[in-house]
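pls read this protein:
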Amino acid sequence: MTPDPGSLHARHRAVMPSWLSLYYEHPLELTHGEGRHVWDAEGNRYLDFFGGILTTMTAHALPEVTKAVGEQAGRILHTSTLYLSRPMVELAERIAALSGIPDARVFFTTSGTEANDAALLLATTHRRSNQVLAMRNSYHGRSFSTIGITGNQSWSPTSLSPLQTLYVHGGVRSRGPYAHLDDAEYIAACVADLEDMLQQTAGGVAALIAEPVQGVGGFTAPPDGLYAAFREVLAREGILWISDEVQTGWGRTGDHFWGWQAHAGNGPPDVLTFAKGIGNGMSLGGVVARAEIMDCLPANSISTFGGSPITMAAGLANLGYLLEHDLQGNARRVGGLLIERLRAVAAGLDVVREVRGRGLMIGVELVRPGTDERSPQAAALALEAARQRGLLIGKGGGGGAALRIAPPMTLTVAEAEQGAELLADALRWTQHQLADAP
């Protein structure tokens, strides 16, 4: 349907890139939010189960964060890293202590893409190699270098890259050649694949970069301990482990504060990247690394906008709120309830292949009813149906066939129950529509 020439959608299409994706047949303009709810320009209210792609981590219009941002804006908005910044040092101190990485240094960026880009710069410089290992079905950003390590066809527009990337198995537990194995056998097979892959390299691989739970990939994850087993192999070769915590960090998975802690058998990662939720909507990301890695760059560098006073103020207030209110524990409790409700719904629907995830990071993979074939059509229908019922969710996974559910971490039990019922109704409608299709 062609939008009205005077509409915001038409104006968007006239000046924005054609590849800049929008959700829904009639895209939404969200105008304001409060708690776990948002409103569109027509006054419709929605329960938000996607949080601006896992970025509104605590709540919309959280008073503690908006107050901190307003107060800092009234003092000074910008200085750059050429000057000392008290809020930047204070937030770096807190993140370094929480990271689990010894002798940690922190560099702030404005996004997860930029954080992963910086991590690749550090790893390849430290190891003097442009060879990088990445996981199949992965996503690490939209810059030239991070697209080069993205193992998800839907988000990889070019094969050109400054890096030589080799992809290993392990990120998708329930599909692929090892899906039939039990967890111990699965880990052993993936480790054997990694060891074999290293025999194909020229030696001196820089790093393995991996999301503990693959975000854009549809919230898939390996068995706990896989990356610890990988770490044992990598350490023998001096290869660094970069844990991409852009979506898994800050307690969202409930069981752990960082996703890497499900794989901690052989210690923490060498490098950790973060972004999204820490700013609760402000543009804030960063890299944590051991000092010897962080300090390996032989030239000067600065960041104009990374570590800005206003984003640091937001990050400090947001992190303080998250820790003081045990939002990790809330993600574990309420997320566990939500997964339980969704699995009960899925048990009676042929369109749902799997409900997976942990905490408030849940994926629902959809298939053509009666088959094991991923169905992007089903996901698109369910996304629209959920919106029509007042629920906002995301999608991703192989071919875009998985629904992504990641509400703000202050989600209440009542809101979880309501969201589960709205999604259940949307999924039932979706299955009915597919059954009636010719």
The mean pLDDT is 95.
